[in-house]
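Problem statement: downstream parser choked on a complex file, so we are re-checking the raw output for the IPE run. The parser issue turned out to be on our end (a line-ending mismatch), but while we're here, posting the original submission so the record is complete.
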Amino acid sequence: MSFLEQQINKNRLPKHIAIIMDGNGRWAEGQGHDRLYGHFHGVESVRNIVEGCAELGIQYLTLYAFSTENWDRPESEVTGLMSLLVDTIHKEVPVLNKNNIRLHVIGNRAMLPPQVDKVLQEALEMTHTNTGLNLIMALSYSSRWELITAVKNIALDVKSGKINPAEINQNTLQQYLTTSNFPDPELMIRTSGEHRISNFLLYQLAYAELYFTNTLWPEFRKNHLYEAIIDYQNRERRFGKTGKQVKESPEKH
Ligand code: IPE
Ligand code: IPE
Ligand code: MG
């Protein structure tokens, strides 16, 4: 076990970690390669971090792999990313099964090329009964798309009399989100030195601890993850209360 891993308090792990995997393009350009080279190496980091989370016993890991806005990138990059996705799924599904990891996808799947969606669907079905880490890939995902979809579906259910507008509360909205089966992330990590959320889980991150690092995604490894978790564990999560209240009854938080 590494020195950093030993410093993690296993009784106070976040249940759900969300990561904006950023910096592949800059990493590749810095090495004199094209952007796809960076995405290709980013897969190595995904593998390492998924393994690290599974070893620690993290229950949910959400990875922002492709945003709705990323469809506007040059066609060659989008096509390259889609074929990398298909290759990676083919290679990794046996590894996921071996490690009892269940794959989930959140995002606007209707925008994915049909053959990509088909491979994804197969992977979801093949890992369906796994009970360890839940690996949630945000693909063709954006929070505004998710919220608009939720509002539309709520409106339809109000119209058909299934729900009463007066009774809509946080629980109702939560059930209409793509993350309805997952708890909110307690820790959100973004690599590459950018300090923004870029349309990622805007509602679900309401009380998440945000952790930013300059490390570019292709260089991000387990030890970086451990550093983020240790940083998280040293913070006081107050949820609107005072520090004194939190210290007096920490079990409530
Ligand atoms: C993140 O890396 C991966 C995707 C968005 C698909 P980028 O491709 O955004 O890399 P930079 O930010 O341009 O360096
Ligand atoms: C966010 O990264 C999306 C993913 C990591 C998949 P971007 O690189 O697309 O975000 P911006 O454009 O810097 O905000
Ligand atoms: Mg980027």
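For whoever reads this later: The chain has one domain: 13-142+184-234.
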